[in-house]
Amino acid sequence: MGRGNLISTPETGSAALPALPVIPSVPIMKVKPRDHDITDRVGGVRVGRLFSNLVSPPVMFALLALALAWAELPFWTGLAWAAVFGFFISLLPILFIAYLLHTGRVGELHMSNTQERRLPYLVTMCGSFLVLGLLVIFDGPPLLRCLALLNIFTLVSLMLVNSHWLISFHATGAASSVMVIGLVFGIVTALYFLPLLFLVILVRLYLRRHTVAQVVGGTLLGVLSVSVLSFLGCFIA
Fold first, then answer.
1. 52: which residues sit within 8 A by CB, 6+ positions away?
2. Which value, to the nearest 10 degrees, does the dihedral of the CA atoms of residues 94, 98, 100, 101 take?
3. How far apart are CA 37 and CA 207, in angstroms?
4. Buried b (16+ CB within 10 A) or exposed e, 47-73
5. CA pair distance 6, 192, nearest whole angstrom
6. What is the pLDDT of residues 169-227, one digit of tens each?
7. The pTM is what?
8. Packing angle of the helix pair 75-86, 118-137 (nearest 10 deg)
9. What's the sign of the alpha-carbon dihedral 194, 166, 120, 221?
10. Contact present, 221 and 162 (Cβ < 8 Å)
């Protein structure tokens, strides 16, 4: 007999095929999201999905980069650096995900199957390292360097967490953005944006894209990421 793990069947008394190896499960949503099917994207679900797309982390970080660049540089110089930052960290990943969707390499935009997120994470991380290098070489604004580091830190953390458990990237992006606004522009300004964080969380829960634990985990990751970088001297205007 071979060395494979063979299973005998009482019907034949002979050995069946070798037992298949156990494949680790992929972290996915156990409950079907409300907006998973195109036919369901109407009414409140359609509005919630549109809102989620508009306040996705790449979009939030691009707008935050513009605000941070203008906090340190004249209008046109700040706009130029924000455009460079936005291209590599926001637009490039969005275009890459659109390509994956078009070619059928991912099932849907929000990628509930976390294995599908690995390539977009890697592309975004490469863009973050590239724009960080440009900021260092050409003496770009320090706040944008910190934002690039924040993007790298959160992406690495998300990749590690998502290999075992699904976590809300939207909550991470919103929480970290509000934290950065508070550190750079003041607590009062951050309070104006705090409802945005709660709205992001409520919409993700409404769409059943995440559980309460997953949005709380994402929020805590965003707060922790900014706290670590601020301890190291980042986001001091």
1. 110, 170, 200, 203, 204, 207, 209
2. 140
3. 12
4. ebbebbeebbbbbbbbebbbbbbbebb
5. 64
6. 999 999 999 999 999 999 999 999 999 999 999 999 999 988 999 999 999 999 999 99
7. 0.82
8. 150
9. positive
10. no
- Please identify which residue in the block is written with the tokens 């604004």: 141
* Residues shown for the chain: 237
Cβ neighbours of residue 226 under 8 Å, at least 6 residues apart?
150, 176, 179, 180, 183, 235
* Gap between the Cα atoms of 209 and 212, Å rounded: 10
146: its two tokens: 């910190």
**8 A C-beta contact, residue 119 and residue 100:** yes
Which residues does 141 contact at the CB level (< 8 Å), separation at least 6? Answer: 68, 69, 72, 73, 78, 81, 135
